Structure formats: C-alpha cells, structure tokens
Predict the structure.
Amino acid sequence: MPPHKEVEFSIELVPGATLALKTPYRMSTLELVELKLQLKEMLDKGYIRTSVSPWGALVLFVKRKDGTLKLCIDYR
C-alpha cells in the first residue's frame, strides 16, 4: 500500500466574514484528563494532526454502557 500524502487545503471566506463563536461545553477535571489522553493517543497513531486554523469544533463525552467515555465532536 503506497504511503498516504499530506493534504493541504484552506477554506476561502467571504470577504468581511467573521468566525462564528460558540461557548465551549463545560468539562469536569476527569473529562479534561480523558480528553488529553484520547487526543495524545490519536496524535501518536496519526489519526489526527495539529492545526493552526482559526476554526474549531466543540467536543463532549458520552458515557458508554461499560462506563468509559466516548469522545464526540459537534461539527454544527
């Protein structure tokens, strides 16, 4: 299988457009620790990469039946 290539892209904004601002979801200390662990794991595995974009998405956790936390991303 050939190695995957980095994809570079940008989103062109309408002139004069501003970023939409939303208040982040509140997280407990436990959730913040879990968020850091899950993000580090995904970065280490190459599933995600760091970004310098002014855009972002809100994240929250949903508790699974076994009690672990599932990371969910709110792209609305």
